[in-house]
Amino acid sequence: MAAIIARLTVRPVIVPMPQPLMTGAGLVKDVPLALIDVERTDGIVGSCYLFCYTPPALAPTCRMLAEFGELIAGQPADPLDVERMLQAKLKLLGAAGIAGMALAGIDMALWDAAAKAAGLPLCRLLGGAPKPIRAYNSNGLGLIGPDKVGPEAARLLAQDGKGFRGVKLRLGYADPRDDLAAFRAAREAAGEAELPIDYNQALSVGEAVQRITALEALDETRAGLGPQWAEEPIRADDYAGYAALRRRVTTPIQLGENCWGPHDVARAVEAEATDFMMPDAMKIYGTTGWLRAAALAEAAGLPVSTHLFPEVSAHLMAVTPTAHRLEYVDWAESILTEGLRIEDGLAHPSETPGTGIAWDEAAVRRYGV
Questions:
Q1: DSSP code of 252?
Q2: Closest by Cα among 119, 68, 116, 118 to 90
C-alpha cells in the first residue's frame, strides 16, 4: 500500500550570507530559506529547502507552501502524481514565481522521502550511482572592484582545501573597462583554472556583443584562457536576443537558471539560444522537472550545469547524461548537519538514504524568523 502524506511543515529562516555578494542584480547579504518537511504516514520525513532570493518573499513563499500542504495532506506520497495535481491547480495562475517554487519544494521533499523509504541515495533511486561531479566555487567574486578581484579569486580557489579548479566571476560594471580589468586580475590569480563569467542579466544585446567581443580580444583569451562561458548577459527570457548574440560572439553562452520548468528549456532549445544549459533545481520544478529538462538537453546535445542547491543538484547531476559542472555555494550549510563534500574540486553526492539534507536544529532556532 502506498504511503500517504500526513502533513507538511515549513519554517522560515534568514541566514547571514557567509560572504555578501554584489551582482548586476543587486547585493545579496542574507539568505532567506524556507525549510520544508513532508511527513508520511509511515513516519518517513522528506526534507528540502528553498532559496527565496529576498527576505520580503520569504513569508509569502511559506504561506503558499502551507496552502499546498493542506491540498496534498491525505494524498499518496507519489512525487509524479502530486506534481501533476499541483500543476493542474496552477493552470490559471501559472506555475512560476512563488507558486512554482512551492511546487518544486514539495517535489524535492517527496523524492527525498521516497529515497529514504527505499534505503537509497536519491541518485540510486533514480537509476544512477553516486559519482564525482566537477565543481567550481561560486561563493564570491561579485562586483567588488578590479583591485580586489585577484586576492579573492586566489582565496576562493583555496577555500577549505577543497581543491577547486574553477571559480565564477561576476561582471557588468558601469564602466566596461572595469570588466576587462576584473577579468585580467582574476585570470592572473587563477592561472589555468576555469573562469566562467556571469552578468546577471545586466546588459542589452548590443552591450553584450561589445563587452564579450572586448574580452575575446584580450591576450588571455587569445592564449586559450578566456571565459569558460558568459552567463545570462541579457534578460533571461529573451531567447531571440540570445540567438542573435551567439551569432556575433565566439564565447559559449550559458542560460537556464531562470527557466521556469521544462517548457522554458524547450523554448530556449528551439530558439538555439544557448551553448550550455543551467537549470535551477527550484525553478525547474524540482527533481521531476529536472529529469524532464535533462532529457531535453541530452536530445539537443547541450552540456548541463547546475544553479545553487548543491546538495540535491549533485544527485541530479549523477543521472544527467550531459552533466558538465556543479555550482558550489555554501549558503545553506549553517543550518545543515553536513554540507556537500568537495574533494580535489569534485562534488560527491551524499551516500546516505535520500539527498543527505538534515537540519541542525540549534541553528534553525537561532536563525528562525
A1: P
A2: 68
Give per-10-residue mean pLDDT for the chain (369 aa). Answer: 93 93 85 98 98 97 98 97 97 95 98 98 97 97 97 95 97 97 98 97 98 97 96 98 98 98 98 98 98 98 98 98 98 97 97 98 97
Provide Rg for the chain, Cα atoms.
Answer: 20
CB 344 within 8 A of CB 299: no
Q: Can you say whether the dihedral through the CA atoms of 141, 58, 33, 96 is positive or negative? A: negative
7 phi/psi in degrees, rounded to 5: -165, 160
CA nearest 130: which of 276, 329, 284, 346? Answer: 346
CA distance 307 to 278: 6
Q: Is 57 left (phi over 0), alpha (psi -120 to 50) or beta?
A: alpha
- The CA distance from 275 to 251, in Å, is 9
